[in-house]
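Thread: Modeling a multi-component assembly for a lab meeting

Hi all, long-time lurker, first post. My supervisor asked me to bring a structural picture of a complex we are working on to next week's group meeting, and I have zero experience with this. I have the sequence lines for every component (922 residues in total). Could someone generate the structure of the whole assembly? Inputs are pasted exactly as I received them:
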Amino acid sequence: MRVRCVFFVAVLFLSFLYSCHKGLEFNLRPVELKTESAHEPLGIDNPNPRFSWLIEASGPSTAQLAYRIMVASTRQLLEDDMGDIWDSGMVQNPENIFIPYNGIALSSGSQYFWKVKIWDTKDRESDWSQTASWTMGLLNPSDWKAKWIGLDRAIGNDKPEIDKTRLSARYLRKEISVSKEVRKATASVCGLGLFELYVNGAKIGDQVLAPALSEYDKRAYYLTFDLTEHVIKGQNALGVILGNGRFFAPRKTTPMPMTTYSFPKLIFQLKVVYADGTAETFVSDETWQLTANGPVVANNEYDGEEYDATKEFPGWNAAGFDDSNWMPAELVNLGAPKLNAQPLAPIVVKETLKPIEVKEVSPGVYVYDMGQNLVGWARLNVQGARGTTVKMRFSEALKPDGNLYLDNIRGANVTDLYTLRGEGVEVYEPRFTYHGFRFVELTGFPGKPDLSTLEGRVVYDDLELTGSFETSDSTINAIYKNAYWGIRGNYRSIPTDCPQRDERHGWLGDRALGSKGESFIFDVSRLYAKWMQDIEDAQREDGCLPDVAPSYWKVYSDNITWPAAYPIITEMLYDQYGMMAPIKDHYDSFRKWVLYMKTNYLKENILVKDTYGDWCMPPESQELIHSQDPSRKTSGEVLSTTYYYHILSMMQKFAGLLNKPDHGAEYKQLADSIYKAYNDKFFNQELKYYSNNTATANLLSLAYGLVPEVYKHAVSDNIAEKTMTDFNGHISTGLVGAQWIMRTLTKFGREDIAYRLVTNTDYPSWGYMVQNGATTIWELWNGNTADPAMNSRNHVMLLGDLVIWFYEDLAGIKSDPEVPGFRHIIMKPTLAGDLNFVKASFRSVRGMIRSEWTKDETSFDWEITIPSNTSATVYLPAKSRSGITESGERAGLNAGAKFLRVEEGRALFEVNSGTYQFSCPL
Ligand code: RAM
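Re: Modeling a multi-component assembly
Sure thing. I ran the full set together rather than chain by chain. Output:
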């Protein structure tokens, strides 16, 4: 007994010693493995998926020297270190994002497993990462055995011919019999415009409003589902509900003709692999049954959904249901010529809000305040007699009498109807519509509703939140919050202009540089890469690009500032995420457009085509939508020529990256002639401004590199002067100029004016919106007084470069344009106005970057975090090196922070990964 005790004590002691030793060990590990920028994706189209990982390290200055990736066909093989599919071996390469798979051909529909280990520059070898997996999509058109089914015509009470089109949802079902034990079941499904999938009574997945929107006459996206847990040996039921989405357009002609592609339809394919290794495929075909006489009586994205629960057919999506009064589904025309795996995460319910108030504004009319302008719908809890119809309508604002203000929703009916089945508590939320709203009007409710009757469901793409940002100024914080809500509400597998009225389109101009600001808050890499494809798909044969993509409204105006978003966002994906693929994929399409614009609109080296001007600049009278005052407007030729010049600069960069020196030289030559013609025509030599001296004319000339070096300061002084004198310290631009105003003022030393613009609370300003109750960003600077014909309360375009400025300038977190994707970071905060702290974090594609600074009269304290495998140049606001400390010691003494030089009132240090605490006297 005693001997045993001693033995135990000895074992405990030894394991204690061992763990102490382990604790001292350096922890190095690849983590957060992503395949094609996603965690564990199902259905990947790229035959050479790209792998990315982050590097977790227990100490500073960690950089990758080499990696080894192993891919296997089963988890077990991988765990046994048997990479039967691919073993990269040790590859000397410091890159940890977008490493392409380079093994044997991957097979359609298969699942793969991978892991990675790395070596760092200090010769340390990591453990293997955890295992990640992905599945390939159906890679070849011939892999699709399924047929498109549905009903290519109206039925029942459908009214496809009226302007506000009406269709009931189509319900489809099929029973299949599975004879053996199931090892794996995978479904590939595309239901257009929208679908929900059920297996044996259960709804599959948490996605809503799926699949992603696309240019349907070019392609549609299918989703891949793992149904292994759902498909059983025996009889199984498959059920699908189809809604209209945009495939069957919500409008015929108002306010513009809208493209209807066809009636709702489905393609469905299920592959079941049995335990014995054999496989069977079940597909959509004419043996499925269909009815359009179900509870979703009508669905229309603008007008709402009508749901009659008395028409439910319980058990329709479970085995054994009698569908003899349904009809056979018909074989229909293709939904789209091409099917691609959906390349971005689906839309989901991201948050649920409780209302903050309910008021009975007149007998039986209840108005709910959600406390926030949100996008999604209301979930209703109700109990009452069968056949009772409850009505919900949605608005962004109220009239003075407390009723919904609906004028700015234009022709959208925004009404959801629910008819009760009359059995206990019923919970309803729509499937095939969405609304942009803060207020809900509830009528027809049986009894007295209360705050628990409705909930706000916040719906958008399942994007990872990457940024956080806070300052000592409450106006800035409120604007940031409004930006966050506006941005998240306008993602709908494309970035939309607005979520509430009869529009909701992917207008290109609204998102050009704004997308870069968004990239700090959300991981939008896949969303925007997909939108670039939508734009290319909507390009006309002759090279003309659309103003709206997908082109559900056919707007091909040849205005240049809107389509410019296409190369601009492609460049953003490269700068912010290190993505090279979009440049490669779209280069030919850019070039076609650039040459098309040149042929048609370049006259004596001035580009002479513009449609929208500096859209939504603040008008002189608060009732106007657009200014009528020529002195406020920026010339169309200035807008289009500066943009064309900028596009040529981007094309030179892209041509360089793609190793096309001839193209590069060609763009350069053209750009040089435009530079000269533009300056000859628009530069006022005497007064040092462009055109009629609007802030936008001078901003674009500066930002796009059209101003000769010697005049840059003088031109920027004119922007400052214009803003302070003619506009009394207020913004004077629309969405075009706003994309440069904050950063350009700051770059030329006028952060005091930038700070004034962002802290203003009177018209026109972002703070004015806050003062007037906005919880999102308005379409117009005068959004509370202007004509309702174009007055959305949830447009993000007027943010301009504000969010970029928050992160890049106030927090000072910026990717070095020379070394993109935050591989080298420029940490350069601007101490604007009376701010005494800024606290920001950003999960970049290479890991977490943090910047938190505080300041008082005498000193500046700054804590930063730089992720593994990156480095940063740090700019301290100090006129000399003396007195600067890092972690309490004179900075630059240890290896962590290397002193570089003092330059323009800043002391520069170079740092590797790690956390640093800098202080300097002010
Ligand atoms: C409006 C849209 C959008 C803008 C176009 C030009 O209708 O809402 O924001 O880009 O017009």
